[in-house]
Amino acid sequence: MDPELKDVAELAALIEVGGFWRLVPEEIPRVYAKTTRALLEDVRVGLERKFAHESR
Q1: Higher pLDDT, 28 or 52
Q2: 5-14 per-position pLDDT tens digit
Q3: 9 CB contacts (<8 Å, ≥6 apart)?
Q4: Is 25 left (phi over 0), alpha (psi -120 to 50) or beta?
Q5: DSSP structure class, residue 30
Q6: Rounded CA gap, 34 and 27, in Å?
Q7: Which of 32, 51, 31 minimizes the C-alpha distance to 40?
Q8: Under 8 Å between Cβ of 11 and 17
Q9: CB burial readout 41-50, b (16+ within 10 A) else e
Q10: In 3-state terms, what secondary structure has residue 34?
Q11: CA distance 9 to 1
Q12: Which of left, alpha, beta for 18 (phi over 0: left; psi -120 to 50: alpha)?
């Protein structure tokens, strides 16, 4: 196996079993909203608003 692909596979496996979370502070949520088209649209609108405001 390509060493780079092996590294990616190992990282994915670590994240899958929750190993990543030991590196993250407790106040960071571990469960997120299901990704839906409406949620993505809300995020897009929010980012557009944020960056439009910052570019002034």
Answers
A1: 52
A2: 888 888 888 8
A3: 1
A4: beta
A5: S
A6: 20
A7: 32
A8: no
A9: eeeeeeeeee
A10: coil
A11: 10
A12: left
Q: Specify the residue for token string 């995020």.
A: 43
* Closest C-alpha among 38, 22, 40, 39 to residue 30: 22
Report the Cα 54 to chain-centroid distance in Å. Answer: 23
Stated as kind and residue range, the H or E segment containing 52 is helix 37-54
Q: Write the pLDDT tens digit of every residue in 21-45.
A: 777 888 888 787 888 999 999 999 9
Query: What residue has token string 């439009």?
Result: 52
* Structure tokens given for 51: 């960056």
